[in-house]
Amino acid sequence: MATQLTSSHKFIRLVCTMIFPMLFLWGLCAPPVGVLLFFLIRMWFQRQAAKQRPHLRQRGKDGKHPVVVGFFHPYCNAGGGGERVLWCAIRALQERYTFVRCVVYTGDANVTGEEIIRKAKQRFNIAIEKPVEFVFLKKRYLVEASTYPYFTLLGQSIGSMILGWEALTSVVPDVYIDSMGYAFTVPLFKFLAKCRVACYVHYPTISTDMLSRVAERRETYNNPGFVARNPILSRLKIVYYSLFAYVYGVMGARCHVVMVNSTWTQGHILHLWRVPNRTSIVYPPCDTKEFLKLPLNSDNDVKSKVIVSVAQFRPEKDHPLQVKAFAELLRRFTPEEQMSIRLELIGSCRNKDDADRVDALRELCESLKIRENVDFLLNVSFDDLKAHLNAATVGLHTMWNEHFGIGVVECMAAGTVIVAHDSGGPKLDIVVPYQGKTTGYLASDIEGYANAMESVLKMSHEDRTEMCINARASVERFSEQEFDDSFLNATEPLFR
Fold it and tell me: Taking CA 403 as the corner, what is the angle to CA 143 and CA 357, rounded to the nearest 5 degrees?
């Protein structure tokens, strides 16, 4: 009985949180009522802004009126590449503008703000010297993919609007930056709170590549087999994706400033959002300076045995491909040689789904009889990450159409020979010839990855060192300083 009451209370609270967003959408459909409702809500938000956390609105020692900048980042404590972008962006704004007050909307309610800042320093070596305000959101489950077994994109997008409403009613910022890719939150902040709005797009919520895979009826993590095998369901899904892509474009185009992290992402966003005059590439920050300090390991006998992967344990990272390719690689060596070849999977787990994927990977290793050759290194510190990369020969990356690939850059800067997926950011921006010389390998299937890794392991020490030196020189364009300059230039119109 108690369980039923608890479930009922949760449902009632969920319905209540949806009232204002639904009224807003309904108002848009009924123009006279919508106009009145729109202005009433806007007036209410303007009054709320002055009352919420009044210390944020106090003038600084320089006498300038503060500008509150809100970053919408529900997983700010996840420890991935997107979080590096967040903390570098905050640090850059705080160093440039004395009047900026930064607020982070996060769903990481199980930790304190101090712990989040401490982890940013530990994981990324990023020190945040000035105060950051945190708004801990209670409804992050509404943007979890697991909440929506079907129509996941639509469910997460509507859920992000509800979560955005919770954020907006907690603190009304002057400038709103969506730093995780929730474009459906942009109109709420722009039109209801009169915020100047920007977004940093790591990966488009939907892309023409996704439509192509459904049209080709290929089974993937986001196109289950029962849909791929059914022509009617595949056709309906194409219609659903096409309609969603249109609405996604309308939402994203409301931004005053659009930043994308790679050439690949830029192409898709320009196609969907159609605001080229407001869109610019801002390569994500990679701590190349720290990795470039690492010496190139000259011990060929030890270094050539370790293959390392750096990626969050998300489905799109395709860790199973890494494990299967590694198993194929081992078959090409004698049992004695196999004992000295290891695969290290380094990454962070955001939630139970990620942890379950790690367990599934362990079981896959067991079934392929390579468990003793694979190490799972979860949530490692920055110092440990450097040590593991410096001790490796091969850097492994398998995500199809990776938007950019910070892990790829880190591997190259640390002195490993990268074997990355032949698509997306790695193909277009990172693993490209530099001064006419090769910087790494690209592959797309088990055989291709096994061939590339075998080539690296059997390469002469001199040839491998030459490739590593060239790759290191090529990634200096992805430094934190380059990001700071590009980010500040792109966002300057928001502070005029």
Answer: 55
